[in-house]
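Standup, Tuesday
Yesterday: got the pipeline producing structure tokens again.
Today: sanity-check two examples.
Blockers: none.

Example 1:
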Amino acid sequence: MIAEISLLDVHVGFFLHLAEKVAGDFEEYGEIPIEGEVESASVFGSDGGGYLFALSSSGRVWRSATASPSGRFDLVAVGLRELLDGVTDQVREQL
């Protein structure tokens, strides 16, 4: 089982948070409303610039447009697998 991912050298950094951090963020921010969408999402990761990644109940992955949970979130992947495949591609490009 993987508890967290910390890839400092991928792009500006990529982090999947520990379950405790995800739970703490949920407690602090609650569900993140996605502008123009019925669904909301929960923060589960970030990048080195402080931008947040959130996963919605549909499985889609969103990235904050600013380093804040209260701003706009943009769709970055149709699922977690697509996001992680993209990160894997970035790692391969750096080898």
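Example 2:
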Amino acid sequence: MWHEDALRRAAEVDALLETGGAAGSGESRAAGSGESRAAGSGGSWTAGSGRGVAGDFGRGVAADFGAGGGAGLGGGWTDGSGRHEADGFGGSGSGGFGGGGVLPLAGVPIAVKGRSGLRAAGPLLAAGAVAVGATSVPGPGTPWQTWGLGARGRTVNPWRADRTPGGSSAGAAVAVAAGLVPLATGSDGAGSVRIPAAWCGVLGLKTTNGRLSRADRTGLAAPGVLARTASDAAAWWRVVSGEPAATRPPLPLPAVWSPDLGFDAPDPEPVALARAAVERLVAAGAVRLVRPRTPVRLADPGPAWLALRAPGAKTAPGAGADGSASASGLDAARRVRAGNDRRLAALFADVPLLLTPTAPTAPHGHEGPGDRYSTSLTWAFNLSGHPALSIPAGFGRDGCPAGLQLVAPHGQEALLLAVARWAEAHGAI
């Protein structure tokens, strides 16, 4: 349950968001800082001092909250007996909401995805975070495969203004990448957190479908977060999940690499960048590559995802359809989904990690993606419900970032974050 004061803060921030505009797209108003332009459109938000709104938070939230009592934002690791270890991930202490009333996110500025996203940020507000603005999302009538065309115009990639940041959590990724905030909430129905994270050079976590509350009739979408550091993403996860400090897993973890999931044809450069990131994880001692007993060969999830997402589709097993969704299309979609679920269950029975490129292409221009889906390597895990994390994988020849996607068994968000935090601490990210 949210704290009563958090609900009061949410109502107060609602008023701010109604007048504040969207981070990452056009003109906006930052609390206490007057009018300015969002990063990526010719300038940056300022906080009176000439620094970005994030101020000292651009280098990662955990750095300023690691001393005593709060165990950093990400919290310390536990050895299984309840004893915390700093181990490069924050100081010692209780973490969470303990420590004599210390809130783990006290004063941390966050951005929320769209104006409807404030209620989903309730646990963060209860933990002391301060919502400073709503990020840009697809505008009215914009297709779900947005490339940053929001109600206030174009949302640009912070690395190249002529390229998209991805969608639909476009403004969230831009706000984090530009250093406006250390954390921004997102939602992921086909890759809407992971793809903008990859194309903006930040981390993006999609949670296990159904584990956190999310209003979505299809069950394909899950809440997520965009963050500058793995420790900050771990801080978000501990607050929204209520999980205690995680026991550090034995590293390196066995992992399977798949450049294409057995059905896609990604461009060579994103594959090469992701594979190089895998080698850095191996060198850092985070993972060790193993050969699966059966090669990773999923059925293309695209037609199934589109059928389940179509207006009128009912996703419950055995249900029919109305509107524009055909019963035969839904039956085929369920067969694809069930087959892929079996293949992934067999894979994760042997290994805890699957590694792929996050997106099959580099960021495209604002004219749109053409006939290629940037979701081809991500939406399989919206169908299956597995948690997935995109981490930065380097830069392409065009100067834009790429991402490496880590996928884990259901409910293993902490495992993904543990690998990312270890890699980050050892210079692999």
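Quick observation on example 2: Residues 1-100, 315-324 have pLDDT under 50 and may be disordered. DSSP finds ten helices and 17 strands in the chain.
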